[in-house]
Amino acid sequence: MRRLSLKSWGLMSLGCLGVIGIGINYRYQTVKNFEGKEPFRLAVVETGETPGRVALVSYYPQEKQVEILDVGGERWVETAKDYGRYRWGVLDQLDASEKLDGGLVTATLMKNYGLLVRDRVRLTGKVQTRSSAWVRRVFWQYSWQGKGWIAKLDAWRILLKVLDLREPEVMTVDLDKLPVWQTADALEPIWVFDPSKFDREVSLRRFRLPQEVTVMVENGSGRDGLGEAVTRILDREGFLVIRTGTLMETEVVAVNTQVRLVKDQETDLSQKLLAQIVGGEMIQLTEEGSLAQVEIRLGPDFTQF
Prior knowledge:
single chain; alpha/beta; Nucleotidyltransferase, domain 5; Alpha-Beta Plaits; globular
């Protein structure tokens, strides 16, 4: 029996690795979270100070720019998931104590900013000036901290894009210096983040989907204002919300969170964004006559924020 040479073994090994690489790349292209067109946002928690500092980093791939919303850590915010009012800087500690794996931090940012936030990344050590180098550090850390191999590959894709990021392409908004706060009744007056003032004072970019997607939102969660909160995020992520309503009390208990899609009227990108914003069950509708391409029903089981 003829024995293979070392060179032949090497060529065979390279061929196998190539096939595996093609398979991984194909699978990644079909299941990736980041399509490369839409904004990619991370909650950043810096633990080098007490209390910690919180920022939101948004990468805009089409403009090749980065926007940083810096909120600091001393002032207060109404948290998501009904945890009450806390300082921004202790959100991550509360998150850890409740074993939410970043979910409370990202959900609180989504609720208050009205933006889709993908995940949280932690930075240790001395707090650094917001700069292109700081942005690269954020995505470098996320390439290690991201949940699962898909998130890590998404992080590497963005990291390669921001390697040559220049300072004029990084815009920082210091929310501490803007009138986006209200005083709250307490034993000692405290400053609490006000989403309505934020919407008036801060001009955020609205993403444009490749094609128009119309949406109706029905709130059957039993929580006042939830439909409007979800609509706020959908609008900024490029969806056209044509109606926001509330289900009758008799319908609320029976409703689970659903995203109902009119057949052949949605795109892969819009489906992924809807899944990340709303969660719940995806249902393909076959009947015609719907006023919108997407019908969203928010049920008592809605847990995004």
